[in-house]
Amino acid sequence: MVWIRGACLSLVALLCVIAIEGHVYAIPHFYAPVGQAVFSIPTVVAALLSFGAVLLQRPLGLPGRAEMAIWAMVIVVCIAARYLHLRGLTLGAGEMGLNTAVGFVLLALAHLSFGRLQTASFGLALLALAPPFVALFGYLNGHEGFFGAMSLPTSAMLLALGMAGMARFVRRPLLRPLVSSSPVGRATRMTVLLWVGWLMGEALIMKAVALPYRSAALMVLLMAMAVWALGVMLYLGMKAEARSQRRREDARDLAAALRLDPPSGLQSTAMAAIYMRAFGQIGPVGLIMLGIDHCDRLNERHGEDTSARILDLLSARVAGTLGPGEVLVRRDDGTLLALTHGLDQDALEARAEALRKLGTGLTGQGAEQLPAFTLSAGAVRARRGDLSLSPAAARAEAALREAERAGCNRVVLKVAA
């Protein structure tokens, strides 16, 4: 937003300098490049005052006394220019049109009320962009009734002033996507650029088409715009429905995650799903699955609850060593699943080995009655943007089974597909 503000203010200064030179050296093309509308001297004065007021703005801060005084002077200049014009008095060539005066007054009121009228100030700032936008649209399409006495440089200058002043409204939800670095922000900015390109292309098409065929060309453009608007509405509806579905899933998973596993006190796999959706948007999530080697044989030889007793002691020991950004869940198939984030492949493999070694020398109630066993671990580093737990957990389970087939008591790291 900083460079946009700087570019807009530079454009305002350039247009004002060109208009001043045109009035001083009597060069009409400098202050009236298109048609009869003029970038008049009162308009230049109001523009320079507004330029100074915008320069005095503090980021997201209330307007100071100097800024408020300058904005008040802008309003006085606009009212005085219109009053003198109605009395037949002019200063230099041309006049300050009514739409130009309205644009300046709305812009001044928007900044004067900033911080005092929360909604009204933002609404006035948006309304201040309407007169120059309508005038610029009229110039692009050759409709004189749209721009009236507002010249082409005046419309560009007012639009640039309004956009530069929008910097103090960037925290508004409506403008936040325009400055966000998220994928939504980038998509929003790209959409705005496409919209600007559409307006420019539509104007070029209408100028290139011969006069007898302009009505047909206009109908084609209107149909294309209608189809585009329908596509946008369907796309927004799809995104809204997907977000609503994710919220329902999060609520369901959160309710399930609050139910702990009674023997170990660990969260269920629902907590792992929430973890994956939360941290998968930020960066890669690492999954480490711990399993007892040849669990079925161990239960056949030493009793059906042998593996369950081992997991009870193991889960308590592993849970005690987890960091603040890690979570451990117990799966129904007799394995433990640890989730972490912010680790590269080497660090993830080392972390998996450290957790696997915790199975050596278990202590606790009934630990002396447990038979000898070994642990294997399967580790997977999911890609950034992988939000679903099931595919990543399936890859971690495949790595665990590969470790058992390779000779047990080891770690196998799988690269994300």
Automatic annotation (TrEMBL):
SMART domains: GGDEF. InterPro entries: GGDEF_dom, Nucleotide_cyclase, Rev_trsase/Diguanyl_cyclase. The keyword Membrane applies. Gene3D superfamilies: 3.30.70.270. Keywords: Membrane, Transmembrane, Transmembrane helix. SUPFAM superfamilies: Nucleotide cyclase. It holds the Pfam family GGDEF. Residues 283-416 form the GGDEF domain. This is GGDEF domain-containing protein.
